[in-house]
Amino acid sequence: MKRLLLITGNPGVGKTTVLLKTIEALKAKGYSVGGMISREVCTCGTRVGFEVLDLESGRRGRLAHVNQKYGPRVGKYRVNLEDLNHVGAAAIEKAVEKTDVVAIDEVGPMELHSQKFKEAVKMAVESRKPVVGTVHWRARDKLIDEIKARDDAEICQVTYGNREKMHKIIVEKAMQFLTASAGK
């Protein structure tokens, strides 16, 4: 039985959408879900950055933006480590303490610039709670390698062909773990 359900796939295939549908379905079944979600920020139809959202409180912050003046550069964006730490990583830490399921979107190149984010992810992975998260399709990092190598981790590859039903598969796997752990 897998506890760490890692969603991956090519850019634009719908990883975050699958995660959001998974969160909705788990909440509809009565489970509390917390953590962080990353969303695109667009101006006039053009992506200019990303925001980070605390699922539990609704608090938002800027993850990265083309006009960000400081922070690590990832492509045309600069990462806002302050908001990533105080909104994103804090949301993961809070979810580990307070919710049934921890959601993380995403473990990727921007987020991996934050040591606090990495520590929050490690905390979630080691928490014994189910973790549903997205992992950037080609990001390479020791943390990602360690998580993927765990016996309790499963990679869920999203494709254009399975993306409409993938959340149902992930919910079923999470429910199996939640039901079994409630019986212990």
Could you explain how this protein is built, in words?
There is one protein chain. This protein has 184 residues and is α/β, with parallel strands linked by helices. It has a domain at 4-36 and 92-182: P-loop containing nucleotide triphosphate hydrolases (Rossmann fold). The protein is built from five helices and nine strands. The protein has a nine-stranded mixed beta sheet, with helices on both faces. The radius of gyration is 16 Å and the shape is globular. The two termini are 14 Å apart.
Quick take:
The chain is an alpha/beta fold. 37% of the residues lie in helices and 29% in strands.
Main sheet: strands, sense, barrel: 9 strands, mixed
Strand portion, in percent?
Answer: 25-35%
Broad structural category: alpha/beta
Q: Helical amount among residues, as a percent range?
A: 25-40%
Helical run tally: 5
> Mean pLDDT, rounded to whole units?
95
CA-atom Rg in angstroms? 16 Å
- Judging from the principal axes of the Cα atoms, what is the shape? globular
